[in-house]
Design brief:
Length: 241
């Protein structure tokens, strides 16, 4: 193969690095849904049990919390991420119009961005010109707005990840209450919840290739605090919360 032919081939990196940032969207929603499912439903079960330890009351509260929470999480994620997506699309539309109205000013703006990142003025101007010729909108969306396919908002993905993981996670404290020995609902649910939270923290960290211990301790601390406060309210006031 000649040097000219080799130069025409697409660029191939010397080595490919494994990154996990492309998981950030669904992973954030999944961890949020699972954590909320475990914490909110277990806190609800513990709070109700502290006020009224009757198994029927505890189970009704648990199943109601699971159903309502799953729908709330899915709807909340969809609405909030849709709002983010609307903002992103509006900014892209404004950038597209600016490129039509003032292309030279937009190219200078792009060059200024590259210069602020450490390139010399001449190199920044050259990079801005070549990227503008290839894909002006893509360059501005990526480097001016800070958006990319990896970080783009995906409402449906977030809603499904959050709602599904909430349902699966919330089922754990409910099942713990169902199979708890008579008069032992609260300790059974608490132990089950703490184990589930520890597993969630470690699993979320593993999925994102992040340190497991800080994630696990963080999830455990806030989950235990939520259950303690809710149980305290239920015990003091004798009402379900």
């Amino acid at each position: 193969m000649s040097a000219n032919e080799a130069a025409k081939l697409p660029y191939q990196p010397a080595h490919e690095e494994l990154h996990y940032i492309n998981r950030s969207g669904w992973l954030r929603a999944a961890v949020l849904g699972a954590n909320d499912g475990i914490v909110s439903v277990s806190s609800l079960v513990v709070g109700v049990a502290a006020a009224d330890p009757t198994p029927s009351a505890v189970l009704i509260a648990g199943f109601a919390g699971l159903a309502a929470g799953a729908m709330s999480m899915a709807a909340g994620e969809y609405v909030s991420v849709s709002s983010q997506s609307d903002i992103e699309q509006a900014d892209i539309a404004r950038e597209r119009q600016a490129l039509l109205d003032t292309p030279e000013a937009e190219e200078h703006e792009l060059a200024a961005i590259y210069e602020s990142r450490g390139l010399s003025p001449a190199t920044a101007a050259l990079v801005a010109r070549e990227l503008t010729e290839k894909d002006a909108l893509g360059a501005h969306v990526r480097d001016e707005l800070g958006l990319s396919e990896v970080h783009a908002a995906n409402p449906l993905q977030a809603a499904m990840a959050s709602g599904l993981t909430f349902s699966v996670a919330a089922a754990l404290p409910v099942l713990a209450a169902v199979f708890a020995p008579e008069g032992r609902i609260i300790p059974t649910v608490v132990v089950t919840t703490l184990v589930a939270l520890a597993g969630l923290g470690a699993l979320g960290a593993h999925a994102g290739a992040a340190p497991k211990l800080p994630a696990t301790l963080r999830v455990l601390f806030w989950g235990a605090a939520a259950m303690a406060i809710t149980a305290g309210v239920g015990h003091i006031f004798g009402v379900s919360v």
